Amino acid sequence: MAKAVFIQSGHSKYDDQPGRAYHFPKRQYLSRVEQTVGDWVIFYAGRRGGDLGYHSVQKVLQVIEDPEDNSQAYALLDPGSELSFERNVPRWREDLGPYETGLPRSRGNNTSAVRIISESDFSAIIQAGLKASHVPDALPRGAEQMVPGGFSDSQVPFEYSGGIRETVLSQRAFRDRSFARQVKQAYGGRCSMSGLELRNGGGRPEVEAAHIVPVAENGPDTVRNGIALSGTVHWMFDRGLLSISDSREILVSGGAVEDQTLQRLIVPDRRLIEPRDASLQPHPAYIKWHRENVFKG
Known about the structure:
CATH architecture of the largest domain: Roll
Number of domains: 2
Order of helices and strands: EEHEEEEEEEHEEHHEEHEEHH
Structural class: alpha+beta
Helix content: 10-25%
CATH class of the largest domain: Alpha Beta
CATH topology of the largest domain: ph1033 like fold
């Protein structure tokens, strides 16, 4: 097994399915991609992909041939393993050169879409990308608590030796805290359905981070699979009393909630309040899944 960087672009001619599958030409990359099966890969988007840099990490499950074109193949990804970075990581570290030590120091473009990287390069990118954000909007509601394994909200140790790295990336408690920080920060600590922005005495937002596709259904820990909701609205969303249309209208299950209650809980125009940054807004596929599998219509 081997770690790698996969480059993705929204303008690519390939049939990439973010979070699900990575499409690539067999002749160029098959031997490299096959090495990543069962291991973690980091996704990178350059200028043509929104200039996100290194932005997420995910496990590769298997490689299959493209049934419609035998010159191409897919790397199938583990959807539930996807974790977005708290900070997008640029290719270049000032005065230190590129994060990938195999890349040229000239800052020129590198066209190889699949690059095997060393454990140390992988660790450096992960450490930079998953460095906890401590801005007020991302802080936990109460005092920071220790989580299983001895990690705390304030500082999760990145001791990348042996199996520790995989333990950190797979640990539910760590992933929940990272996901919550990312979603709260993306929405500015404000409930996306009620519009409320409540904070406790320490300035910490009372809003909660809700998965659109639940973890139990293999939903990823990415901002695009999350929305910020107040406690009661979160409960209603998880139980299918509320959902979201493709046009971002807040949907209400018929007869489940009295109008007077809705007037207190939901913004008057019943439209979801989204982050301005389109790369942080809910993904249409996750919203559709919630409507079709959770919403009680």
